[in-house]
Amino acid sequence: MESQNKIYVNRPTLPDLDEFYDLLKEIWESKKLTNMGKFHNQLENELAEFLGVKYVSLFANGTLALIAALQVLRISGEVITTPYSFVATTHAIKWNGLTPVFCDIEPETCNIDPNKIEALITPKTTAIVPVHIYGNPCNVEQIEEIADIYGLKVIYDAAHAFNVKLKGNSILNFGDLSILSFHATKIYNTFEGGAVISHDEKTKKRLDYLKNFGFAGETKVITHGINAKMNEMQAALGLLQLKYVEKNTEKRKRLAEIYYNAFNHIDGINYLKIRDEVDYNFGYFPIFVDKKDYGISRDELYQKLKENGIFARRYFYPLISQFSPYRELESSKPENLPVATKLSSEVICLPIYADLDEAEVQKICEIVQNSTTTY
Ligand SMILES: *Cc1c(COP(=O)(O)O)cnc(C)c1O
Question: Which pLDDT band, with edges at 50, 70 and 90, does 257 fall under?
Fold first, then answer.
């Protein structure tokens, strides 16, 4: 049996089960289970409105959304991306038969460093796939400038960036396309799910063909599409979850403030600074352990937390470039990725989710505070 006092890095939030039951009853009565049903279409519209974007194409998960986004823009050759992410970012590139080229990251944001992109561009480069890591926006202006000069497409992996805004504008409105993930571990979940955000009707339509085997009519198949449709149960849950996004963000914000206050006073514990012009979603709380000032290493603190029932996660360690499918690439060499290599060795993501008690967060802060002195 699971012990009561274990705390994990996150726990999914769910709506009231009775509310979900009412929608399930509708599905049972209509016998419409999938294939762009009522709830699917309603969720596409409501999400577009809620997020402040033009077109939403729902997908079965975020990985398939990214695979389809690369397909729909006919990306070929080499794609410049970040090694500091969840492995699905690079896998989606690889599943399209493309070559990932890893670019180092910025020390302040952990996002792809635009100043290091140009040196990696070759005649084979066709796209950039940056990630708004932890939901903190990339330097979208500088990335756009480079993409425009070289004629590259930009597809943002915005799996962490649900409802994030930059100067009041959805971060999903930047780049050619953005993808979202609604996996159970993300701040907005549909059990599993995802979406591609597009800015014109033609692309939206082609994405919808792609996720349904390439069907563009009853007897017409226009491309080697895949089955990546979101079903009605997922979409129904998504409609309910939408009602709680703002409230849950407020709760996570309060928890983040407790962490900020505590870590302002601990040497060697650094946290991610979010710029004032960003409306953040507080989906993650990464800290970076500098052993020199803090006294013990990241892994020692990670163990300490574990001994106290706190199951933090080292997102993102190891770097994607260190995994066996990618480590032979020239761009994977650690000497080409000094910032990513360093931050990856220092990071711990602390628990943050809407249902987490403030007292528990206080406790975690105390463990971090006391870990260096108890050694
Ligand atoms: C979760 C995640 C994905 C994959 O999303 P799934 O819905 O789990 O397929 C892709 N990229 C990043 C950065 C993620 O965190």
Answer: very high
Instruction: Give per-residue pLDDT as tens, 101-114.
Output: 999 999 999 999 99
Place of tokens 């007897």: 219
How open is the CA angle 96-331-322, to the nearest 5 degrees? 80
CA 372 – ligand 1 centroid, Å: 34
Total domain count for the chain? 2
- Going by CA atoms, what residue is nearest to atom 7 of ligand 1? 62
Distance 62 CA to ligand 1 centre (A): 5
Domain range spanning residue 55? 17-242
12 part of a folded domain: no
Atom of ligand 1 nearest to the CA of 160: 15
Residues with CB under 6 A from ligand 1: 61-63, 85-86, 88-89, 131, 157, 159-160, 181, 183, 194
What DSSP assignment string belongs to 293-330? HHSS-HHHHHHHHHHTTEE-B-TT-S-GGGSTTTTTSG
What pLDDT band is residue 2 in, cutting at 50, 70 and 90?
Answer: very low
Tell whether 158 and 299 lie within a shared domain: no
